[in-house]
Write a structure and sequence with these properties.
Layout lengths: L6 E8 L4 H10 L3 E3 L2 E5 L2 H13 L8 E4 L2 E7 L4 E7 L3 H13 L5 E3 L1 E4 L2 E4 L1 E2 L1 H13 L5 E3 L2 H6 L4 E4 L8 E7 L2 E8 L3 E7 L5 E3 L1
Antiparallel strand pairs: 1-6, 1-7, 1-10, 2-6, 3-5, 4-5, 8-9, 11-15, 12-13, 12-16, 13-14, 14-15
C-alpha cells in the first residue's frame, strides 16, 4: 500500500499585495493555507462598498472578507505579503510554477522560502510545533502584537525559553525578551518571522 505524502508547512513571500490571490488559487486546488490577519469590522460606507463587492464576487465570496450574518469583517494582513502553505513537498512544484508564471507576466512576483546548500536549493519546511505556537499567539493574542523579520529575529531570539501555562496563550512556547521596556514573549518561526506578545505576567510562565 502506497504511503500518503507527508504534509508540511512552508512559507511564501508574495509581492504587490497578492497574498489573497495566491490563497484563492491554492485553496481552489485543495491546498490549505494560513495568512496572519486581523479581523476589522466594517461600518458605514466601508460596509456598503464591501457588500457591493461581495455581490459581484463569484458565489458572493471574497477571501478578503468574512461575513457573519449582517456583519462584514475585512481580513487585514498583519505581516505584509506573507503566506503559509500546508502541503506535500511534491505539490510545491505547482505553487512554484504558478508564482513564476505570474512573475513572467509582471502581475505577481514571489518565492518559496528556501536555503541553498552546496549550490542546491532546499525548501524550508516549518516544524508543526513552531507553526502551532505562532498561530496560537496570532489568533488569540492581543492588539499589541509586534512582528519581526530578518536580523531582528536573531537579535531577539535568545535567552530563556518559556512556556505559557495560563490564559488564552496557554501552551505557547518562546523566548522571554525585554522589548521596548516590556517583558514579552517572542514566538519564532526560524528564518522567517517572529511575533512578540504584549506583557505577560511572570507567574503565567514556566521555564522549559
Amino acid at each position: 500500500m502506497e504511503e500518503a505524502p507527508q504534509m508540511k508547512w512552508y512559507a511564501l513571500k508574495t509581492f504587490f499585495n497578492k497574498a489573497f490571490d495566491v490563497e484563492d488559487y491554492l485553496n481552489a486546488r485543495g491546498i490549505d493555507t494560513y495568512i496572519p490577519v486581523q479581523k476589522v469590522l466594517l461600518k458605514g460606507i466601508a460596509h456598503i462598498l464591501a457588500r457591493k463587492r461581495l455581490a459581484k464576487a463569484p458565489e458572493h465570496r471574497d477571501s478578503r472578507y468574512i461575513v457573519e450574518g449582517a456583519l462584514i469583517y475585512q481580513r487585514k494582513p498583519l505581516v505584509t505579503s506573507l503566506l503559509f502553505v500546508h502541503c506535500a513537498e511534491e505539490q510545491l512544484s505547482e505553487v512554484d510554477a504558478y508564482m513564476k508564471e505570474r512573475d513572467a507576466n509582471n502581475n505577481m512576483r514571489g518565492y518559496i522560502y528556501s536555503t541553498y546548500q552546496s549550490g542546491e536549493r532546499k525548501l524550508t519546511s516549518i516544524p508543526d510545533k513552531e507553526m502551532a505556537c505562532f498561530r496560537l499567539v496570532v489568533d488569540n493574542g492581543s492588539k499589541g502584537l509586534e512582528f519581526f523579520a530578518g536580523d531582528d529575529i536573531a537579535r531577539y531570539a535568545s535567552g530563556d525559553r518559556v512556556r505559557v501555562k495560563e490564559g488564552p496563550l496557554r501552551g505557547a512556547e518562546g523566548y522571554i525578551k525585554r522589548i521596548r521596556r516590556d517583558r514579552r514573549l517572542l514566538v519564532v518561526i526560524e528564518g522567517i518571522v517572529a511575533v512578540a506578545t504584549t506583557y505577560i505576567p511572570p507567574q503565567n510562565l514556566e521555564k522549559i
